[in-house]
Specification:
5% strand, 540 residues, Potassium Channel Kv1.1, Chain A, five-stranded mixed β-sheet, disordered C terminus
Length: 540
């Protein structure tokens, strides 16, 4: 860290029993200056020799026959004033990145310019700030952090802007030209470490493209946002690196749990943070921002009641990468837990947008060689199947919510095309959980939700469980047993696929199941007995 020493005399400032500061001198003090709650017992002459503002205040005090001056709005408070006072006495004072902004603003406030005395404090602080602080990477960041408590003075003097420009310019330098120290705790991943990595480390000092990311984590969100925007404006930083930087900042500053946002003040801070982070995310939809991270932001947005526009933006981004999410990621706490545990409506919107976009891409005769927008390339072969499994796992999770409406469950289950769900085992599991947690459903309601299951697409294990599941409507059990028997008779034992005449068989099964409950019971007993005989014969 760079520093500059001013003055040649020893520091004679001391503190009395009441906490007031005074200059130990043979001459008695003749003026009291109150800065905030701190009193300074000083001498008029050295102050008047350097400060135009104190000249006026002392003259006014003399007219009013008082020996006390009050400066309640002094920038940066008592510590900054003491630096200025020591400079007036030519006492030794050390300036560095932590106090240079305070000293500069205080000197400006006191009018310590060249018009009053040559080599005054404004000129000296400006020279040190421009020649040393702004030329240092970490010094510029430290100085920028201190500007917030001295607003609007630091902004009016363009100190904030100069710090931001310096930081953005250095962050945008080619990594090969980075010669200053920086913080970088991230280790190389297994993918990055190849057989040549050790040799490269030995031969040269490798500077990663994101070398600047960790040092900027110290900044509060308003300053951080300005720095990132300045870096973007220079158009020399890869957009993917900016995306990872914003993600690192979010991880560092967002609370670990939603419970920590119980107070309105914390919720407001988090809302401002989330809104700023989302606004900084690269607009290029081809940039890889994980769906898990985006869903975390969405959960916070819901929790702090962020704007609808913000949530819509996150939903749009998530829908592009839904195939990368997990069921746990999709468990978004509802804004009103009295209604439901989870916000199923938001997930429904995400799925709908994914289906619409993916269907459009398929219809457009997609080819890897086509020149299309970056978001088109997010959709990869197999995405339908991945999303199908994801939705069924999610359904199994939310099915435990006793407040979940049947209609919401059914709508979400039906929102993906049939081709995305070639096997119905996970859907069956989710429906079974729903029936277990909603025992008050009547026969018609149970039939409606169980109509989602295609018994032909159940595995042997799932159909075996379903055949003995008392929570299922009798009609469904009959169908399950019928197709178990059909599969056994046709030798099908490796999956849900059945003979081509399955549609005809389904019609027959449904017809048999349309009788009275008594007839259904008799049929069920016979089918199960036959199935047991067949299975017994296979075992032998």
């Amino acid at each position: 860290m760079k520093f500059m020493k001013l003055g040649s005399k020893p520091d004679m400032f001391q503190t009395d029993g009441n906490g007031a500061r005074y200059v130990a001198s043979e001459l008695p003090t003749d003026i009291v200056i109150r800065v905030g709650e701190k009193k300074f017992h000083l001498h008029k002459f050295p102050l008047q020799s350097k400060s135009n503002h104190l000249q006026k205040l002392i003259a006014k005090a003399d007219e009013e026959k008082t020996d006390e001056i009050h400066m309640p709005d002094f920038p940066a408070g008592p510590k900054a004033f003491e630096i200025c006072a020591k400079f007036c006495y030519d006492m030794t004072v050390t300036l560095n990145a932590y106090n240079i902004v305070a000293a500069r603003c205080a000197a400006e406030y006191l009018g310590m310019t060249e018009d009053v005395d040559q080599g005054n404090l404004v000129m000296k602080t400006d020279a040190f700030f421009n020649s040393c602080i702004l030329r240092g990477w970490k010094d510029s960041i430290i100085a920028l952090k201190t500007t917030k408590s001295i607003l609007p003075y630091s902004k009016d003097l363009k100190i904030v802007r100069r710090c931001i420009d310096s930081i953005a310019s250095r962050a945008s330098v080619d990594p090969l030209n980075v010669t200053w120290s920086y913080t970088y705790k991230k280790r190389a991943t297994a993918v990055e470490v190849d057989e040549n990595w050790v040799e490269i480390q030995k031969k040269s000092r490798v500077v990663p493209k994101d070398w600047w990311v960790e040092d900027l984590l110290e900044l509060e969100i308003d300053l951080y946002k300005q720095v990132i925007l300045a870096i973007k404006s220079k158009e020399r930083m890869p957009i993917g690196v900016i995306g990872q930087a914003v993600k690192a900042y979010a991880v560092s500053w967002l609370p670990n749990s939603f419970g920590s946002m119980a107070s309105d003040d914390n919720a407001h801070k988090c809302r401002v943070l989330v809104e700023a982070i989302v606004s900084l995310l690269p607009s290029n939809e081809g940039v890889c921002i994980s769906s898990s991270f985006l869903l975390k932001l969405l959960k916070f947005a819901v929790s702090v009641q962020a704007s609808d526009a913000l949530k819509e933006e996150l939903v749009k981004r998530i829908s592009l990468r839904l195939n990368e999410a997990s069921a746990k990621d999709l468990l978004i706490p509802a804004q009103s837990p009295d209604t439901m545990c989870y916000d199923v409506g938001l997930v429904q919107t995400i799925v709908n947008q994914f289906v619409t976009r993916y269907t459009h891409i398929q219809d457009s005769d997609y080819s890897e060689n086509d020149e299309k927008s970056p978001e088109d390339f997010v959709m990869k072969p197999g995405s339908w199947l991945i999303v199908g499994k994801l939705i069924d796992r999610y359904l199994a999770e939310i099915a435990r919510d006793q407040k979940l409406p049947r209609s919401s469950f059914i709508e979400l289950a039906q929102s993906i095309p049939k081709s995305a769900r070639p096997v119905h085992d996970r859907l069956y599991k989710a429906i079974d959980v729903f029936l277990k947690e909603h025992p008050s459903l009547d026969k018609t309601e149970r039939k409606e939700i169980c109509a989602l299951i295609d018994v032909e697409k159940l595995s042997l294990e799932a159909s075996k469980h379903a055949a003995q599941n008392e929570r299922l409507p009798l009609r469904v059990i009959v169908q399950v047993v019928y197709f178990r028997q059909l599969r056994a008779a046709t030798g099908g034992s490796k999956g849900p696929e059945v003979a081509p005449s399955s549609n005809l068989c389904t019609s027959k099964a449904e017809k048999n199941a349309d009788g009275t409950v008594r007839e259904d019971m008799e049929l069920l007993k016979k089918q199960m007995k036959d199935a047991k005989l067949i299975n017994h014969g296979e075992d032998q």
